[in-house]
Write a structure and sequence with these properties.
There is one protein chain. This protein is an alpha/beta fold and 267 residues long. It has one domain (63-256): Rossmann fold (3-Layer(aba) Sandwich). 32% of the residues lie in helices and 19% in strands. It contains seven helices and ten strands. The strands form two sheets. The chain has a six-stranded mixed β-sheet with strand order 5-4-6-7-10-9, sandwiched between helices. Strands 1-2-3-8 form a four-stranded antiparallel β-sheet, with no helix packed on it. The radius of gyration is 19 Å and the shape is globular. The termini are far apart. The relative contact order is 0.16. Pfam families: Methyltransf_23.
């Protein structure tokens, strides 16, 4: 294992070598850990063009189920902690699955993603501007420079609801924790709660966490409120909110039909 040390891409402190792993089945890559903030990072990732030849990994068969589960929690957060009548954006929204689900529930959601085409929520791409809340599901682990990416999300909203699996402490061996995922090479940033708290503090954000769900916001909220809404959203509250909101399914269909007739949307 190399003894060369580099700087933490979250707090700038010196890292220590953690282990080496074969990424994409062929590149011997070093993983490093920051003793100060607990961030785990790969060496500077030079293989990402190859890793992102597809926006989604072939072995990820649970993406739809996770979108639905995360959407229920997002509905609870949006309904009770935000102006539920406002606009929302799904950052790194992939094919638009979450955006379409949230619009079906009744929220005015839009999607943005530099690397994937919005297929499922066509016609609802996010324009620059301010939004009530940004969701960012399963993308923080892909950030080469977390602070730069967080700056981009903050251009949309000061409230960011996101998911990422917290790295256990001490860090497991590469074959003892599935979330390293060296086989697809896309997970280059792994966090602990203290890492995310430090990252948020750099931007004046409060940080709340329960399991793999996280919230950055300038608002002051009781920690138990966030935990309750996330978990209750998953187990029933999300369905209730769907009954309280007015679905946009029919109104979106009418809007898209009008746009198509006007030539603003290609069928």
């Amino acid at each position: 294992m190399s003894s060369i040390r580099s700087s933490c891409r979250v707090c700038g402190s010196q890292t220590r070598p953690l282990f080496s792993a074969k990424v994409l089945g062929k590149y011997d890559i070093q993983y490093e850990e920051c003793a100060m903030c607990g961030f785990v990072q790969t060496e500077t990732p030079y293989w990402l063009d190859e890793a992102y030849s597809s926006a989604f990994t072939t072995t990820d068969t649970g993406t739809l189920q996770r979108s639905l589960i995360m959407g229920r929690s997002a509905a609870a957060i949006a309904y009770f902690l935000c102006n539920r009548s406002g606009r929302f954006v799904d950052y790194a929204g992939g094919y638009g699955t979450l955006t379409r689900y949230m619009r079906d529930v009744g929220f005015d959601f839009y999607s943005t993603d530099l690397y994937a085409q919005n297929i499922i929520a066509r016609g609802f791409d996010a324009a620059p501007g301010r939004y009530e809340m940004a969701t960012a599901f399963e993308c923080f682990e892909h950030f080469v420079n977390p602070a730069e990416e967080l700056t981009k999300i903050l251009a949309y909203s000061d409230t960011i609801f996101f998911t990422t699996q917290p790295c256990p402490d001490p860090a497991p061996a590469v074959d003892k924790w599935w979330y390293y995922a060296p086989h697809h090479g896309q997970h280059v940033a792994l966090y602990r709660p203290r890492t995310l708290k430090i990252l948020g503090q750099q931007f004046g954000l409060n940080y709340y966490n329960v399991r793999n769900y996280h919230l950055f916001t300038r608002k002051q909220i009781p920690s138990f409120s966030f935990s309750f809404l996330v978990l209750a959203g998953r187990f029933g509250l999300g369905h209730l909110i769907g009954l309280l909101m007015k679905s946009r399914i029919l109104s979106d269909a009418a809007l898209l039909e009008t746009r198509t007739k006007e030539g603003a949307l290609i069928p």
